[in-house]
Amino acid sequence: MTQKLLLIPILLGSIGLSACQALRVYTVDLPQGNPITQEMAAKLKIGMTQSQVRYVLGSPMLTDTLNSNRWDYAYTFKPGTYAHEAGMKPITKQLLSLQFQQGKLAQITGLETLPQTSQATLLSKDGGLRAEPL
């Protein structure tokens, strides 16, 4: 008898917890930074000026105030509801660092962290990711 009385709260608790997934709150995709692909980075050539690099990749996410010759293009992505349902994984570390000497591109590091294509715009149903820039 006591086993049956103990079984009832356990069953009700497990049913209640499984219902929490059905009432989940919608979350948006959270991209932060510059989504740079291998194709975009392939356009970089040693010896390019800072303005040419800015034209190819856009403005850097991070510029060191103490060292203006280093630009960092960082990108992270936290999938929201639609992206999570599509099976998209979060991107936690994607960093491209550029070093300049005398105004010319001298060194590129972090190419191995860049994807072939930008997954965030391909798979997500979130319309905010497909919006044109201002």
Please characterize this protein's 3D structure:
It is rod-shaped and about 85 Å long. Strands 1, 2, 3, 4 and 5 form a 5-stranded antiparallel β-sheet that branches. It is built from 5 helices and 5 strands. The protein has a single domain (26-128), classed as Beta-lactamase Inhibitory Protein, Chain:B, domain 1, CATH 3.30.1450.10. By secondary structure, it is α+β, with helices and mostly antiparallel strands.
Quick structural summary:
The chain has 134 residues and is α+β, with helices and mostly antiparallel strands. The chain has helices at 2-22, 38-41, 50-57, 81-85, 119-123; strands at 30-33, 62-63, 70-78, 91-101, 104-109.
How many beta-strand segments? 5
CATH architecture annotation: 2-Layer Sandwich
Which stretches of 5+ consecutive residues score pLDDT under 50? none
How far the N terminus sits from the C terminus, by CA atoms, comes to 68 Å
Number of domains: 1
Count of alpha/pi helices: 5
